[in-house]
């Protein structure tokens, strides 16, 4: 028997979202979108994202994600028994785009593989793990250069991505609408790469 679909409105009230890289670009957009839908956002960044957190009435915490000690402190202060994890990869992790650089491509490819492994590991705990793989987006990271990959005509949808485009995909993956999805790497790239 087919049941009526879950309400199309996404309600994240009483949900806590931890957003890394919350001080700008995609992380900032994700923070704003999740707050819009009612989540309490804890913004994590190496630079305390105070202005953003004041704007969305969330809380900010400084955390250097290259420091094992700081990560352990963060994890120990936030108990997670169930929930959803959405990682940010990149189309460069799939295509090896030259303009991104070898280290960037490899790190994003590693995030994609990590998504699959972590999804299997976390499933028995009721934790879903997925990844969004954006194509080229207009962020501070790309504003000072305009590689060929940012030329609008190269995109089937005739524009590079915006942080808000990626944030809406993250919103879908943290919502109940994705409750039968784990271990996926979702391409969100305006059609520049089709798998």
Which key terms come to mind for this protein?
three-stranded parallel β-sheet; Rossmann fold; 195 residues; 2 domains; alpha/beta
Notes on the protein architecture:
The structure is a single chain. This protein has two domains: 13-79, NAD(P)-binding Rossmann-like Domain (Rossmann fold, 3-Layer(aba) Sandwich), CATH 3.40.50; 81-194, NAD(P)-binding Rossmann-like Domain (Rossmann fold, 3-Layer(aba) Sandwich). 34% of the residues lie in helices and 17% in strands. It has six helices and six strands; from the N terminus they run E-H-E-H-E-H-E-H-H-E-H-E. The strands form two sheets. A three-stranded parallel sheet has the order 1-2-3, covered by helices on one side. Strands 4-5-6 form a three-stranded parallel sheet, sandwiched between helices. Helix 1 (25-36) links the parallel strand 1 (16-20) and strand 2 (40-45). Helix 1 crosses helix 6 (163-174). The longest helix is centred in the middle third of the chain and has 21 residues, at 102-122.
Summarize the structure.
The chain is of the alpha/beta class. Helix content is 34%, strand content 17%. It is globular, with a radius of gyration of 17 Å.
Strands, count: 6
Which CATH-level-2 architecture of the largest domain? 3-Layer(aba) Sandwich
Shape: globular
Separate helix tally: 6
Helix and strand pattern: EHEHEHEHHEHE
Mean pLDDT across all amino acids: 82
The fraction of residues assigned to DSSP E strands is: 15-25%
Structural class: alpha/beta
Which fold name corresponds to the CATH topology of the largest domain?
Answer: Rossmann fold
- Indicate the percent of residues in helices: 25-40%
